Amino acid sequence: MNNKMVEEKIEKLKEACKKQHMRVTNQRIEILKEVASSTSHPDAEAVFEAVKSKLPNISIDTVYRTLASLEDLNMIFRVDNQLPKARFDADKTPHHHFICTRCGEVFDIFVNERDKIKIPQQAFKIGTIKDANLQIRGVCNKCNGKKKEN
Amino acid sequence: MNNKMVEEKIEKLKEACKKQHMRVTNQRIEILKEVASSTSHPDAEAVFEAVKSKLPNISIDTVYRTLASLEDLNMIFRVDNQLPKARFDADKTPHHHFICTRCGEVFDIFVNERDKIKIPQQAFKIGTIKDANLQIRGVCNKCNGKKKEN
DNA sequence: ACTCTTAATAAGAATAATTCTTATTAAGAG
DNA sequence: CTCTTAATAAGAATTATTCTTATTAAGAGT
After folding, report:
1. At the N or C end, where does chain B have fewer CB atoms within 10 A?
2. Where are the domains of chain A?
3. What's the rounded Cα separation, in Å, for the pair B109 and B79?
4. pLDDT greater than 70 at residue A29
């Protein structure tokens, strides 16, 4: 993302914070700026190191907390929708996964021939492909129900 | 997977082990049996608990090691291709990811309108969808090169 | 079957990523 | 400018996973 786009993103952050009654802190701005201007899908540690030059006293915990809140605000997202634990499957039939971002449950979605995913040509230039699957992220019905109870 | 399919899978494991000069251990058999007969994408802890009834002395380390080796043998796979660290991205333009299973590098793949993924109808019944992206797993060219050096 | 080599294991310590606890700071409402 | 409290820094704690080391057992060779 170029400078202008990053600046626009910061403006969006400010609006989003106001809307959610969240405070616009330097930490939030600098961390979003860093993720938005990076092209390397940085991890928390990399963001921490990069942001230190602007905010020398920042703690790694703030980075984690802020990345999570920026995700909540829909400003950034987590590549691969990391789950706290690795989960395994022995069924090699090509199928997709619906992953509930709230409870971590994984739902299989088996598709027919017509709905099979096609791997973009570009991918073959990057390396040797082992497999590919569609990852659908959302909130499952069960968790949606729970939300209403609160 | 039904009993018969599980048994077939165990046979495949035995063949694969012989081919790779790996020993056919009870731990490998029971762990594969557990993952293959489960429908819940179990994590290491769940496999550990389930397998304890058959092998009361099994250690959690063996479960982790065995799950990894079963993955190597292509008998099971890891849902979501868990990476050791969470990685973030601020670019919400729909795009896919090529994830190198060896070095963890994530490569963006931007696609044109025609190659856009279509979310299977079934997914909408499971819950509220936030987003979806294609995850292509493989080994990047750089890592493929390194392999040859050995 | 018996022996031997060594891959695989159990046990528990160690590590790495992430989250929690608590005291302090500062955003922004009034 | 003051006050409330959300957000933070610091470091301890936790959780998933991996490593270390001594022991066991698979299976090759006899």
Report:
1. C
2. 3-78, 93-144
3. 21
4. yes
